[in-house]
Design a protein that fits this description.
Blueprint: E1 5-8, H1 12-30, E2 38-41, H2 45-53, H3 57-73, E3 78-80, H4 90-93, H5 104-114, E4 119-123, H6 126-130, H7 133-140, E5 144-146, H8 150-162, H9 171-188, E6 192-195, E7 213-215, H10 216-230
Parallel strand pairs: 1-2, 1-3, 4-5, 4-6, 6-7
Helix pairs in contact: 1-10, 2-3, 5-7, 5-10
Length: 236
């Protein structure tokens, strides 16, 4: 039997896309209509944002751990979090967690290395882009990266927090992402872009991005499927 996947949710759109990907793509590994057992828990996004606006990453970690404990009681075998930003609390969470986790940036970095990519453009909330969540994992794979300019980070953050998390997808916002990604291709020498907010793949993908995309949401979901079906020793 496949392992039971626990999803520690934060924002609804990203968590829903991750859950849907696991359920739909599970059939490719397990047969028609089949997928591993999945449980999802998330507190109100407002509770996470209260902590994030105060720069209280220990508080973020406590919310993640509360979800982890509930998912452990529900029978989950391991955990994933389809939210890049709150992985800033991962070092606080992991040692106290009742279950093992897959780390979203580690999954993305491993996939980028396997594809032979060299320099990645980072996109995501302003908290994620300013953090070391991706740089640490990319460096471990020998990968370079570039961050958007400060003004670009602020506008991308506005699009994420005012539009994408509410399920609002505007053509003008997609155009802004295209502008930023194109500039990072030309000026920073990037050969792919990390969609480092789990809602961005609902707006941007390989068909409308100037650079190949690394869809953190679906990559995490697929890594969880491999782990659930093949076990912890499966190379992600």
């Amino acid at each position: 039997m496949p392992e039971h996947i626990g999803i520690v949710g934060c924002s609804a759109e990203g968590a829903a896309l991750c859950y849907q990907t696991i359920c739909v793509e599970g059939a490719q590994l397990l047969g028609p209509h089949a997928h591993p057992e999945v449980s999802l828990h998330t507190p109100s996004l407002a509770r996470y944002m209260d902590c994030i606006y105060r720069d209280d990453w220990q508080g973020v970690g406590e919310l993640m751990l509360a979800s982890a404990r509930k998912l452990a009681k529900s029978g989950a075998d391991f955990l994933i979090c389809p939210d890049n930003t709150i992985h800033q609390a991962f070092a606080y969470v992991q040692p106290r967690s009742p279950l093992p986790w897959l780390h979203i940036a580690e999954v993305v970095a491993a996939h980028a290395a396997e594809r032979g990519l060299r320099r990645l453009a980072l996109t995501g909330t302003r908290w994620l882009v300013a953090s070391e969540v991706y740089p640490e994992k990319l460096a471990a794979q020998g990968l370079a990266y570039a961050r958007p300019a400060a003004a670009e980070c602020e506008e991308i953050n506005r699009i994420i927090m005012d539009e994408l998390v509410y399920g609002v997808f505007k053509s003008g916002s997609a155009g802004y992402f295209q502008q930023v990604i194109g500039r990072m291709q030309r000026e920073d020498g990037c050969d792919a872009v990390v969609l480092g907010c789990t809602e961005i793949p609902l707006l941007m993908n390989d068909t409308n991005s100037p650079l190949p995309t690394l869809d953190s949401t679906r990559l995490l979901a697929r890594a969880a499927l491999q782990r659930a079906v093949h076990g912890a020793d499966r190379r992600l």
